[in-house]
Write a structure and sequence with these properties.
Keywords: DNA-binding, Transcription, Transcription regulation. The chain contains 5 helices and 3 strands. It is an alpha+beta fold and about 110 residues long. The protein has a 3-stranded antiparallel sheet. β2 and β3 form a beta hairpin.
C-alpha cells in the first residue's frame, strides 16, 4: 500500500511523534520501562540498576506514573517501602521497545564493522 505524503498528513505525523516523545522521551524513561518489564522494583533497586540519581529517578517515575505507564505502590512496612511496576497500558509500548532494541543491535553492529 502506497502512503500519500501530504502536508496535512505530515503535520499529523509530527504531532503524534511529539506527543510520543513528550511521554517517553529523554535519557531514562524507556530504560526504566525496560527494567520494569522483568518485574516490580523498589526505588533504590531501580536507581542502582539504571545508574540514575535518586532525584532524576523520582522525577522520571512521577512523569511515567502521571502518563499511566507505571504504578507506584506504598507498602505497609517499617521503614515504608515503595515499589514500582508497569501498568497494563504500558504494554502498548512493547512494539516500540522491541523495534528500538532491534535497531540498536543492528546499528551497533554496523558501527563496529
Amino acid at each position: 500500500m502506497d502512503t500519500i505524503h501530504t502536508k496535512e498528513a505530515c503535520q499529523k505525523s509530527i504531532l503524534a511523534i511529539r506527543d510520543t516523545l513528550d511521554v517517553v522521551g529523554g535519557k531514562w524513561k524507556l530504560i526504566l520501562l525496560t527494567i520494569l518489564m522483568t518485574g516490580p522494583r523498589r526505588f533504590r533497586e531501580l536507581s542502582r540498576e539504571a545508574g540514575i540519581s535518586p532525584r532524576i529517578l523520582s522525577k522520571e517515575l512521577q512523569e511515567l506514573e502521571m502518563n499511566e505507564l507505571v504504578n507506584r505502590t506504598v507498602q505497609n512496612t517499617k521503614p515504608i517501602t515503595v515499589e514500582y511496576s508497569l501498568t497494563p497500558y504500558s504494554e502498548s509500548l512493547n512494539d516500540v521497545l522491541s523495534s528500538m532494541q532491534h535497531w540498536g543491535v543492528e546499528h551497533r553492529r554496523k558501527m563496529i564493522r
